[in-house]
Specification:
Strand 3 (31-36), helix 2 and strand 4 (56-61) form a beta-alpha-beta unit. 35% of the residues lie in helices and 26% in strands. The longest helix has 13 residues, at 40-52. With 92 residues, it is α/β, with parallel strands linked by helices. It has helices at 20-27, 40-52, 64-74; strands at residues 3-6, 15-18, 31-36, 56-61, 78-81. Residues 1-10 have low confidence and may be disordered.
Amino acid sequence: MNKVIEADFFPRESKLEFSGSIARSMVEEKRRILIVDNDHNSTHLVKILLEKTGRYLVLEENDATKAHQSARNFRPDLILLDIVMPERDGAK
């Protein structure tokens, strides 16, 4: 018997059909987080702490001009964005 799972935490697909153990493994899929900040030490520390939980796949971007393309390629579930950055800030 197939179960239909509808949840807001499946950003890439809104309706998924799975059975038992497959559904559980998909729920445990690592969430993608993009961290954008010009302070490399801060982004690296947050990346290490989040990935250590085993629940997240984290990409750090320290160049604001490259962050937009990184977001398009990485397709994160969440973006942690510093809005005060040199050259181009998070508000633009």
